[in-house]
Write a structure and sequence with these properties.
Radius of gyration: 23 Å
Shape: elongated
Strand content: 25-35%
Distance between the termini: 36 Å
Structural class: mainly beta
Number of helices: 3
Largest sheet: 11 strands, antiparallel
Order of helices and strands: EEEHEEHEEEEEEHEEEEEEEEEEEEEEE
Number of strands: 26
């Protein structure tokens, strides 16, 4: 059974030497891993990648191989695969990059022992296992792409501790896998972005991201925060629509169904250079990240009653794209889930004499979250649906879901759902909601 990996971004150095010389701390910080349940908890803040400039972009002419004593032809554990006398192993920042490479490449419990130029030994442990063959053999193009995506997904130029959840195609990265974060007990439910490229051996090196469905939740040191990270937005035309897309995952990446048979995540990303052009430049090895906006700690619910409605918004108000998140004045967000074939727009309409937030596309889902990441309670709501539908609540810190069936027409639903991270209304033929009663 594949599973996704639970990580967080921070500043602590781990793995390092075990009974050997200790790694220094004047370079980028690294992962610290402790097993929890089905995933992995990590503290990392890879603030830079030694040998590549995080301020001016990717400046090395041949990626990390340039003058860094690193080879993708020879295994990491061999002398020629990672040299001791020059490059990465000769500085604290370089050894930090080596540790991160090992974390991404090697499997859980595996490790390599390496020497620096002074003869001190360091032990670097694996965790994600997406390039395990590189330990003693070569790392081909697909391996390089997987590890590059992993490195970018975990970068934080500020070194802040930020919990994330990562997904990778279960066929290409079975040790990571794909699942809905809440189905692995993770509270990181906001889809941040998708990372891909080749920073190891491509000439020139390349590093890209596209924005996820929750990109509005940009975090300092992460993508979209003007952090100086080496990756840049991947943009281009969609062949089927002729529209120019500025770095949006839902438009530029292909999806695969998750094990719950309800949700999707991304498996590759591509673009066209002009209208009518075929997709090209496909990146086949990508990694998706999820975050929780409230990453500084849990917030206690005070259970103050609150009724949300849409009367303050003018009729015809319409979201601009599927990546756009509309926020009410009550600090709740209403959006629809990513669906590559749908428009992704929500609209305020007059329904049964009141304003309602409607999604009219077949198979789309309206999602309710609190935009600070706090848990909330749902007590009642009014839903108009065109066909039999379901409402599902996802709880904080558990894989448990709560569900209720909705019938065709008007549904006045009374509930007592506490500790929710999000609510989804899954409709088969359009849905409109109004008068949502919550406690928070």
């Amino acid at each position: 059974m594949t599973k996704a990996i639970w990580n967080s971004l921070g500043v602590l150095l781990v793995g390092g030497a075990v009974g050997c010389g200790a790694a220094g701390q004047d370079g980028p910080a690294l992962l610290q891993d402790d097993p929890i349940g089905q995933g992995l908890a990590s503290e990392n803040g890879l603030s830079a990648i030694n040998g590549l400039s995080a301020i001016n972009g990717l400046v090395a002419s041949n990626g990390l191989m340039t003058a860094n004593g690193l080879s993708t032809i020879n295994g990491l554990s061999t002398i020629n695969g990672l040299m001791a006398s020059n490059g990465l192993m000769t500085s604290n920042g370089g050894r930090a990059t080596v540790e991160y490479l090992a974390k991404c490449a090697l499997g859980n419990g595996d490790y390599i022992d390496k020497q620096d130029q002074g003869g001190a030994w360091y032990r670097y442990y694996g965790r994600l296992g997406i390039g395990s063959g590189w330990k003693s053999g070569s790392c081909d193009g697909a391996c390089q792409e997987r590890i590059s995506a992993c490195m970018m997904a975990h970068m934080n130029s500020t070194g802040n501790h930020v919990p994330i959840f990562v997904n990778g195609d279960s066929d290409k990265m079975p040790s990571v896998g794909m699942s809905l974060p809440t189905d692995s007990g993770s509270d990181a439910i906001i889809q941040e972005g998708v990372f891909f490229g080749n920073m190891l051996a491509s000439n020139p090196p390349s590093a890209y991201f596209v924005k996820g469905d929750g990109f509005k939740a940009s975090i300092p040191g992460r993508l979209g925060a003007n952090s100086g990270n080496p990756y840049k937005s991947w943009s281009g035309y969609r062949s089927d629509t002729g529209a120019w897309i500025d770095g949006i995952a839902a438009d530029l990446c292909m999806t695969k169904q998750l094990p719950d048979n309800e949700h999707f995540d991304f498996i590759n990303c591509g673009r066209a250079d002009y209208v009518g052009d075929y997709y090209h430049g496909y990146w086949q090895n990508v990694m998706t990240t999820y975050v929780n906006r409230n990453y500084n700690g849990a917030v206690t619910q005070n259970f103050s009653p609150l009724t949300l409605n849409f009367n303050s918004e003018g009729l015809g108000f319409r979201t601009q794209s599927r990546a756009h998140v509309w926020t009410t004045t009550s600090n709740f967000e209403f959006k629809n889930t990513v669906n590559r074939m749908a428009t992704g727009n929500l609209e305020i309409q007059s329904v049964a004499g009141s304003n309602a937030l409607c999604s009219n596309n077949w198979g789309e889902h309206i999602v309710i979250t609190k935009n600070t990441g706090e848990p909330f309670s749902l007590t009642s709501l009014k839903v108009h649906v065109g066909n039999a539908s379901t409402i599902t609540g996802y709880k904080k810190g558990t894989t448990t879901r709560v569900t209720r069936t909705l019938s065709t027409g008007l549904n006045n639903v009374t509930l007592n759902w506490d500790g929710l991270l999000k609510v989804e209304i899954r409709q088969n033929q359009g849905a409109c909601i109004d008068d949502v009663a919550v406690k928070t």
